[in-house]
């Protein structure tokens, strides 16, 4: 794993109370606690259930490898409260500098429906567009995940179409609604 010192230290305010920073190894207990709620894994791909220390180690390896591949700038952002506790995340994948990336996110259940993710995704996307000169950010959402689709719409993403059977999860094909944001239509405030 690349050394942690190779990652950039970043703090992006999203509201007076919440901010985005890089992931930290000390986030382990908080991440495991939030991901003990199966609903988060059920609505996403790539999050194991159950999720424990071994899974967190793997996540941190991916975090470090992706940052390493992009000059030390993290592609994974922790959402933190005013006490600096990890409460959720916004992550980028399939990053092609000067072109495009995919965004994903989840938030610990006690914090849902307070518009935190909308603010976090808006700020993270603005950062990503400027940092990597992106023209497009896409986000496939499980069909039926109304809250997630709503987050994207509030950030200026537009629905582009239904991708039938796009995901295979737990032996089941899942349709995904594809949303995308074009850089010129990012609309603050989020
Ligand atoms: C999706 C998720 C990140 C949303 O986080 P959040 O901080 O609660 O989102 P926000 O409060 O910013 O916005 C949620 C919006 O969805 C709406 N919403 C929530 N549940 C809803 C439902 N069942 N039906 C309709 N709308 C719903 C809220 O009213 C709000 O819209 P509004 O501001 O217009 O009222 C969170 O629910 C989560 O972590 N889910 C599990 C993981 C996941 O689905 N990740 C996304 C994978 S693509």
Task: Tell me what you see in this structure.
With 190 residues, the protein is α+β, with helices and mostly antiparallel strands. It has a single domain (10-185), classed as Aminopeptidase, CATH 3.40.630.30. It contains 5 helices and 8 strands, in the order E-E-H-H-H-E-E-E-H-E-H-E-E. The chain has an 8-stranded mixed beta sheet with strand order 1-2-3-4-5-6-8-7, sandwiched between helices. Strand 3 (76-80) and strand 4 (86-96) form a beta hairpin. The longest helix is centred in the middle third of the chain and has 17 residues, at 116-132. The protein is globular and about 40 Å long. It binds coenzyme A. Coenzyme A binds at residues 40, 43-44, 104-107, 112-118, 141, 145-148, 150-151.
Keywords for this structure?
190 residues, alpha+beta, Aminopeptidase, eight-stranded mixed β-sheet, 8 strands, globular, disordered N terminus, binds coenzyme A
Q: Could you give the order of the helices and strands?
A: EEHHHEEEHEHEE
Strand order of the largest sheet: 1-2-3-4-5-6-8-7
- Largest sheet data: 8 strands, mixed
Overall number of structural domains: 1
Number of strands: 8
**CATH architectural group:** 3-Layer(aba) Sandwich
Shape: globular
pLDDT average, as an integer? Answer: 93
CATH class: Alpha Beta
Count of individual helical segments: 5
- CATH topology (level 3) name: Aminopeptidase
Percent strand equals 25-35%
Task: Report the radius of gyration as a whole number of Å.
Answer: 16 Å
Straight-line N-to-C gap: 35 Å
Q: What structural class do helix, strand and pairing data support?
A: alpha+beta
The CATH homologous superfamily is named Gcn5-related N-acetyltransferase (GNAT)
């Amino acid at each position: 794993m690349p050394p942690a010192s190779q990652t950039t230290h970043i703090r992006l305010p999203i509201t007076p109370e919440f901010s985005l920073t890089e992931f930290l190894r000390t986030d382990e207990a908080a991440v495991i606690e939030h991901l003990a709620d199966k609903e988060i894994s059920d609505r996403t791909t790539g999050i194991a259930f159950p999720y424990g220390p071994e899974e967190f180690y793997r996540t941190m390896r991916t975090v470090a490898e992706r940052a390493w591949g992009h000059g030390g700038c993290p592609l994974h952002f922790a959402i933190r409260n005013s006490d600096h506790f990890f409460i959720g995340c916004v992550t980028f994948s399939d990053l092609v500098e000067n072109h495009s990336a995919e965004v994903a996110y989840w938030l610990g259940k006690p914090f849902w429906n307070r518009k935190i993710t909308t603010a976090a995704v808006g700020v993270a996307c603005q950062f990503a567009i400027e940092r990597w000169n992106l023209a497009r950010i896409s986000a496939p959402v499980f069909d039926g995940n109304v809250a997630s689709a709503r987050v994207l719409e509030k950030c200026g993403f537009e629905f582009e179409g239904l991708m039938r059977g796009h995901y295979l999860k737990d032996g089941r094909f899942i349709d995904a609604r594809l949303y995308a944001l074009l850089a010129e239509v990012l609309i603050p405030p989020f």
